[in-house]
Every structure is written in C-alpha cells, then in structure tokens.
Design goal:
elongated, 2 strands, 8% strand, two-stranded antiparallel sheet, single chain, mainly alpha
C-alpha cells in the first residue's frame, strides 16, 4: 500500500477516534455482524417466472 494512501486511511479512521492499530483491532472486534444473506441468496423460481 502506498504511503499516501495509508495516510488517507488513517486520517479517515481518526474521524471515528481510531488513531493506532490497537484501537483499530478493538473497533473491529466490537463491530456488529452484518447480515448479507439478502445479497447472496438466490431467489426462488416458480415455473418460468422469476420472483
């Protein structure tokens, strides 16, 4: 990762109070799970029509 890109990422993280790797690890650990089932499940096919 380029140094400039890394600085921009840390600048954005700082807006949420994350200033170092330890704080980042803690924030990731405390994240709520995201249900992505609606994005990955196939829709049920009835006859020749798709729902």
């Amino acid at each position: 990762m380029s140094d400039e890109r890394e600085k921009r990422i840390w600048k954005e993280l700082a807006k949420d109070g994350i200033h170092n790797e330890k704080e980042l690890d803690a924030a990731i650990k405390n994240m709520k799970l995201l249900n992505i089932g609606g994005f990955v499940n196939k829709l049920e096919v009835v006859g020749n029509e798709k729902n």
